[in-house]
TrEMBL record:
Gene3D superfamilies: 3.30.530.20. CDD domains: SRPBCC_CalC_Aha1-like_6. It comes from Actinocatenispora rupis. The lineage of its organism: Bacteria, Bacillati, Actinomycetota, Actinomycetes, Micromonosporales. InterPro entries: ASHA1/2-like_C (IPR013538), START-like_dom_sf (IPR023393). Residues 35-147 form the Activator of Hsp90 ATPase homologue 1/2-like C-terminal domain. Belongs to the AHA1 family. This is Activator of HSP90 ATPase. It comes from the Bacteria.
């Protein structure tokens, strides 16, 4: 597997706007290339056994219109499934989130790259009123997705994946989290974020994902 910071640099991060059933949303968008076929990447994001090796173990009625639940508590419904190029799900965390349906969705788009391999795009839309954004900014979800896509890169490289929860406790993991939070801060600034609020959000996100490792 390449150096983890090379993997961090391989992704392009932007922040935008969108619409959800619950209303106006902000989006965090990740785009990167994987040296794997579209079919292979599609299998990695939809096959339960493979998904559990880089994301989290998943259970549920895994078909269009069905529901899913990850081992960490993330859950939702499968809203669109167009093999092998598009998957869209609602994305809620914790039982209280069910009181606010339509507030968070994740969409993954895959396309073949002219140079070989797959262009991977992930868009996570969250309602502007969701409570974590004022404190953490786009890094609230962005750092987590950076960690998971790092695990996916490892899975494609050697069939194995780091435990991202354990990785976050290492000096290398602390550095990765800090750099990821800073990269999402840059995306937030580019989208018009207030510099002082962005700086505070980057610090809060770093401390959340790597407590004790931000000195």
């Amino acid at each position: 597997m390449k150096d983890v910071l090379d993997e961090l640099a391989a992704a392009r991060r932007t922040m935008g706007t969108g619409m959800l059933p619950a209303g106006d949303a902000y989006t965090i968008e990740l785009r990167r290339h994987y040296d794997a076929s579209v079919d292979d990447v599609w299998s990695a994001i939809t096959d339960p056994e493979r998904l559990g090796r880089w994301l989290k173990p998943v259970t549920g009625d895994l078909r269009l219109g069905g529901s899913f639940e990850l081992d960490g508590g993330e859950h939702g419904e499968i809203l669109a499934c167009d093999p092998p190029g598009r998957l869209r799900v609602s994305w809620l965390f914790g039982p209280e989130a069910d009181e606010w349906p339509g507030t968070s969705e994740v969409e993954v788009l895959l396309s073949p790259s002219p140079a070989g391999g797959t262009e991977f795009e992930l868009v996570h839309a969250a309602a502007v009123a969701e409570p974590m954004f004022p404190t953490y900014g786009p890094g609230a979800g962005g750092v987590g997705w950076d960690l998971h896509l790092l695990m996916l890169a490892g899975f494609f490289a050697d069939g194995e994946s780091l435990d991202h929860e354990r990785f976050r406790t290492t000096p290398e993991g602390h550095d990765f989290v800090r750099r990821s939070a800073a990269a999402w801060g840059d995306a937030h600034l580019a989208a018009g974020g207030d510099p002082d609020r962005v700086a505070a959000a980057v610090a809060a996100t770093s401390a959340f994902y790597a407590p004790g490792g931000t000195e």
